[in-house]
Design brief:
The complex is a heterotetramer, with two copies of chain A (about 325 residues) and two copies of chain B (about 200 residues). With about 325 residues, chain A is an alpha/beta fold. Chain A folds into two domains: about 170 residues, Dihydroxyacetone kinase, domain 1 (Rossmann fold, 3-Layer(aba) Sandwich); about 140 residues, Hypothetical Protein Tm841, Chain: A,domain 3, CATH 3.30.1180. Helices cover about 30% and strands about 25% of the residues of chain A. The termini of chain A are far apart. The model of chain A has no long low-confidence stretch (mean pLDDT about 95). Chain B is mainly α. Chain B is about 70% helix and about 0% strand. Chain B is built from nine helices and no strands. The N and C termini of chain B lie close together (about 10 Å). Classes of the chains: A alpha/beta (about 325), B mainly alpha (about 200). At the A-C interface, helix 1, helix 6, helix 7, strand 11 and strand 14 of A face helix 1, helix 6, helix 7, strand 11 and strand 14 of C. The complex binds adenosine-5'-diphosphate (2 copies) and magnesium ion (4 copies). One adenosine-5'-diphosphate sits at the interface of chains D and C. One adenosine-5'-diphosphate (ADP) sits at the interface of chains B and A. Chains A, C: It is an enzyme of class 2 (transferase).
Chain lengths: ~325, ~200, ~325, ~200
């Protein structure tokens, strides 16, 4: 394992300190319990949008804290869901009197810890709602598993709901919008090589020189199927087809296409893959109206990518385009 | 509990390796972090009743472990604490009741059934063994040894089944052939409690 | 070699196509000869700021084409400088009547090809100036080498000069500003693992499990010294000290600190390293007024990082803060 | 030139490997790309004079090779084209003059001296050998063979020296022990010209 770190047990804390020093105008970082909060929190009268999850997915979630997106993010240890006291602290620090919406990725640990946190926050007197995002179509037998995982779609959800909250949507409105987005966003990813959790010291899984792992999650957990590596055309198709079939997306649908890097794949490959996805969508008559390309929902230095499709309507386009000012996403301001 | 912390430290790599095979590789680190924090908390201010200790364990695990294991073990110890109330010295029937309460807590939170390849596969047989030991009138050390034996067997049984809960479930067929890390840590904890109660450690 | 590509010989072209489809509002991409041009070019009366270099450093340079930064970028093959006809085409497409400034990184190939291009463009009747950036302090014996290389400082140069041109600075003004920036920006990088050029199929160099390469360039060329890997504290110091000693930077200096990822190092490590650099600078009494953290001047999927320090004054701060709207850098708009 | 393209294709990996050791690993690919484009251009419209061919080579290399090698080889062929003017059949003195012009072009652009570990280390001895062959009154095949031999020796000599120009110079001491890829490609090209002129290929 080769990393630019001092000690596996202090990676998250030291990285948060660095993040705080890099964005003094945007965020405030508290270390125990660990919470990243937007600098002007609490915003009076605004619903607080809070998310969190294991570290190692940067810029998710801390990089999305700021105007027009998240009010706070709770980073757990690497790939480990945060604890309830972190979420409770985030709720307290961002409470503007209009309640809090917790955005939870569907992993057993995240769900259980956020559940406990919601109980604690309610006991503190804050109205709290939770939504669980599960956009990963790689998980097929949801009945016999912990259910689909939350992956790339999380970013889109946070952006859209964050924009609505910034404009004054109330807790009911934010929750309804979140459920709508969750209903129409789908993702799938693949890995060429796994990342290494600092305290594990070894990659999460090992692939032969001609293998890829199809349907990976973002926690270094292996995917569902190991297949021979193909051309970029084939790999992109193997991600896009299950996504399209799942919702399903149909000709004439307006979509946002998000081509995401897993952390160790360079932009030159991501753009190449993005171009293929756009071409395949055009062939199906699906209209790409918005796009995002880059490493935003990562898995340490995993080599690989994911595709996310969100079905758009005028409301979602407007919310996507709304100003956002965070460390990792910024426009209109 | 100090001994439990030591045992978990010794087995940290093993648990993480099991978790790497079918999960995300942090179970050993998570458990170690929780019990290490517990040792610190106990050194600062050790509760004097068994119930108090169990409650401190619960709160520490909930706030330090994270992941799936944190709230599950946390709930288990919390329910056990409630079950023993403020009993001064634990007798065998009370221990059996506490273990049953712990199991109920895990199931209430995690909704796993036996055979889903989770810690339930270790805890449930342990509870059954403890209950029949209590019925037979055995003492606490013997009860805990029976529970630990059953948990170990239960953890072993997870090797052959397909995961239906937690992270390992994403692997489908590929989860077969690996022991569940949470079942293994449950078996380790019960073995430690048995050893301590029997004066072996 | 595992990459998301179809064919090593079409990587750059396909990636450019994907980039074009990802940013239809921002850029126009021409493939033969390959040029990325801002969508609204030529801007009448504006000095055209043009850069280019081998591909594999994305988002450099194409990701910096747009309002307030570059008018055009000329991507060569991977790690191979572009050819004069590309640069000539870029000059033609962006000529707003006020001349063109070519930003050239100091590599023999880049310098020679841009030199020829400048001659061609002058023959076409466009006033052309060139500046060569050589901010890499890792190259010590400049007398006995091709001279210092252009690395991370290139981004800062492009941003600052792009902002000045956008505000109406003339060709003399842009050139003078560029020389000023080049005079006060310094960088150094290290690698934990090299990237692989697609048509080479093998990493540019191979490091043992406990080695890093200190003083790497951005073209997969090995650095000057191979050393044992240290802690993040040690590694950051080994980059920062030569930078500080070189200009030199002194207590009280105002600086922009740019912590750059080489492509395969995740953000969690970059922020960690950034935090260390900020701490070391604070200890020296150097005032970090602006910062940038992320993979911006990369070397394919190389694992590693570089640090760049630019000495600031009010003029440079204002130009850095000025609105920019490109694929990879955006604010104020 | 078709033969040169084939030779460069055969040696593509070797040249890239040399470049990987002390540069950025693209020299073989760069040269191959340039000469492959040249073959296409010649098929479309082959100039009928040696000067015309040399000029086409120059323009193609300049616009297709990129890197350091593109403008350097481009300039070399351009200067050679100018030197032979519109001569119909090349004699030995003209070839020697053309080679000298090529060398002067490379040096004018790249400012490398002998011993800097560049293509100059192959081209300069080749020019000297060609000039003395011309003086001795040898014919074109013999002159080119002498030039090719000298270039090969010159390329070999780059192994032992420290690079002072181009990408390899960043390596300092570590560049010693590796042959310069540009010197190697110069030697390969001259060997090919000699073979073709001698009717060997
Ligand atoms: N729904 C559930 N019910 C009971 N136990 C579960 C459940 N989900 C996961 N577990 C247990 O948690 C263990 C994993 O814990 P850990 O690795 O610490 O958390 P995470 O999976 O979040 O990384 C599994 O091995 C399993 O025994
Ligand atoms: N200044 C120079 N003068 C003469 N030859 C040079 C000079 N710089 C580089 N070269 C030659 O160019 C070769 C490298 O070419 P190539 O790999 O195609 O370009 P790049 O170095 O830009 O990747 C070197 O091996 C060397 O022979
Ligand atoms: Mg985990
Ligand atoms: Mg785990
Ligand atoms: Mg090159
Ligand atoms: Mg080269």
């Amino acid at each position: 394992m080769k990393k630019i770190i001092n000690d596996p047990s202090t990676v998250v804390e030291e990285s948060l300190k660095g993040m705080a020093s890099a964005h003094p105008d945007l965020i405030e970082v508290q270390l125990d319990p660990a919470v990243v909060v937007r600098a002007d929190a609490p915003v009076p009268g605004k619903v607080a949008i809070i998310s969190g999850g294991g570290a190692g997915h940067e810029p998710l979630h801390g990089g999305f804290v700021g105007r027009g997106m998240l009010d706070a993010a709770c980073p757990g240890h690497v790939f480990t869901s945060p604890t309830p006291d972190q979420v409770q602290a985030a709720v307290q620090k961002t409470d503007g009197g209009a309640g809090a919406l917790l955005i939870v990725k569907n992993y057993t640990g995240d769900v259980l810890n956020f559940e406990t946190a919601a109980e604690l926050a309610e006991a503190d007197g804050v109205a709290v709602r939770s939504v669980v995002i599960d956009d990963d179509v790689a998980v097929t037998d949801s009945l016999y598993t912990a259910g689909r995982r939350g992956v790339g779609g999380t970013l889109l959800l946070e952006k859209v709901v964050g924009a609505a909250a910034e404009r004054g949507a109330d807790l009911d409105g934010c929750e309804a919008l979140a459920r709508k987005v969750i209903g129409q966003v789908r993702s799938m990813g693949l890995a060429l090589a796994a990342g290494t959790v600092p305290h594990a010291g070894e990659p999460g899984f090992t692939l032969a020189d001609d293998e890829i792992e199809l349907g990976i999650g973002i926690h270094g957990e292996p995917g569902r199927r190991r297949v021979k590596i193909g051309t970029a055309d084939e790999m992109v198709k193997s991600l896009l087809d299950p996504i399209l079939d799942d919702l399903p997306f149909a000709a004439g649908d307006r979509v946002l296409l998000f081509t995401n890097g897993m952390g160790g794949t360079p932009l030159i490959e991501l753009y190449l893959a993005h171009g293929i996805a756009e071409r395949l969508l055009a062939e199906r008559g699906i209209v790409v109206e918005r796009r995002l390309v880059g490493p935003f929902v990562t898995s340490l230095e995993m080599q690989g990518m994911s595709l996310t499709l969100l079905k758009l309507d005028d409301e979602l386009v407007e919310l996507w385009d709304a100003p956002v000012h965070t460390a990792a996403l910024r426009w209109g301001v | 509990m100090r001994t439990a912390a030591k045992v978990l430290e010794e087995h940290r790599d093993e648990l993480s390796r099991l978790d790497r095979e079918i999960g995300d590789g942090d179970h050993g680190e998570n458990m170690h972090r929780g019990f290490a924090a517990l040792v610190t908390a106990m050194e600062r201010d050790a509760p004097d009743s068994p119930g108090g200790v169990l409650k401190l364990v619960a709160m520490t695990l909930i706030s330090k472990v994270g992941g799936a294991a944190g709230p599950l073990y946390g709930t288990a110890f919390l329910r056990a604490a409630t079950a023993v109330k403020d009993t001064g010295e634990l007798d065998a029937p009370t221990v059996a009741v506490a273990l049953r309460a712990a199991l109920d807590g895990v199931v209430a939170r995690g909704k796993a059934e036996r055979g889903d390849k989770t810690m339930v596969d270790a805890l449930l047989p342990a509870v059954l063994a403890a209950e029949s030991a209590a019925e037979r009138g055995e003492d606490v050390p013997a009860l805990l040894r029976a529970a630990a034996d059953a948990a170990a067997e239960g953890a072993d049984s997870t090797v052959l089944v397909l995961a239906r809960k937690g992270r390992a479930s994403y692997l489908g067929e590929r989860s077969v052939g690996h022991m569940d890390p949470g079942a293994r840590s449950t078996a380790l904890l019960l073995r430690t409690f048995a050893d301590v109660a029997s004066g072996h450690r």
